[in-house]
């Protein structure tokens, strides 16, 4: 029996589509393959026969439906079944981020989503930041914060998303430290120059912390059980690993920074049990970064300290 690694890439993708349609829609036919991959009808027929040879017993032809349908013993061999992926793609389609032609949805199911407030990012700005990350370069940017607009030199090394906005994590030459810069607030990009900033010294970025989350302690037993199931908790605990530099955003997004007395347990639902541990990890990471960029142990790779160029 063929396994995924034994099937050439293009055919494996078509097999994956066959299983996607069989699993999520309950039927698949030649036109699905033709439309998604632009192949001829004879080729689509060959693909279906090849799939049945690779995964015997998964599909059967239904003359009423005039399509192949999954059998009661259907087990995907080429598709990683994920409800999260399905719903994320559906959300992206309904919000206009992608077209159905970019997915395997021929027609999405009846659904609606709340409007998304788009934090716009200039594609030319993003391209310049990506090239700086790849080429280890510093960029001269005009950055607009809530208090002022000024020209800065930054050396981006990564991208980060806080649930609402995309940031670039970068070395700030002016502040002599690693900081987050919101991509949508970069108004323009000027010159570029080589950088000797070492991303491995950004300890807040490179340190992973674990947020340990439980149902709100003031919820009743039945309510806690619901929350445990909703969030996939194990023994009443959800552990979320994240970079220390992003922990603040995650805590804020989940309302874990609010004091219990200021919000009802039914609304808050979740509770962070290791808040002090996270704060200590953040302080430790920040101190490590400061030691690395001070004196001769700098953010540069043994060339010179920033601030003395």
Question: Could you provide a short overview of the structure?
Answer:
This protein is α+β, with helices and mostly antiparallel strands. 36% of the residues lie in helices and 22% in strands.
Q: Could you describe the 3D structure shown?
A:
It contains 10 helices and 10 strands. Helix content is 36%, strand content 22%. A 5-stranded antiparallel sheet has the order 6-5-4-3-7. A 3-stranded antiparallel sheet has the order 9-8-10. Strands 1-2 form a two-stranded antiparallel sheet. The protein has 4 domains: 4-81, Winged helix-like DNA-binding domain superfamily/Winged helix DNA-binding domain (Arc Repressor Mutant, subunit A, Orthogonal Bundle); 82-116, no CATH class; 123-195, SH3 type barrels (Roll); 205-288, no CATH class. Strand 3 and strand 4 (149-161) form a beta hairpin. Mean pLDDT is 90; it is low at 296-309. It has helices at residues 9-25, 30-37, 41-54, 83-94, 123-135, 203-206, 221-230, 244-253, 265-268, 275-292, and strands spanning 59-62, 67-70, 137-144, 149-161, 166-172, 177-182, 186-194, 208-215, 238-243, 270-272. The protein has 309 residues and is an alpha+beta fold.
